[in-house]
Amino acid sequence: METTNRRSTYYTLDENNQLVRAKDSIEWALWMARHQDRIQIGDWNRDGVRVSTVFTGEWRPFETMIWGGKHDQRKWFYMNYGSALTGHVDIIRRYFTGWGPTAS
User: Whole domain around residue 15: which residue ranges?
Assistant: First the structure.
């Protein structure tokens, strides 16, 4: 029986930004190197704070991270492109409004 460690699962994106499981880390690394223009999904900067959403292609394939400010290094993870885009915008909106009732 073959077991798969979820942390060793890698993905690429098809032409519609749908996840495609890479056969191994080499295929994933080659895809990432050849598709640098598709890795950055969203990038926002204001007053020394950056909100960046990227395709990592790893076991949690999409990530939004805040750089700077009181929420520096806070991260969110997504399993699909649409959720990553929505999440990126949501994080920016919450940042502008003081994070609302769910802020920590």
Answer: 8-99
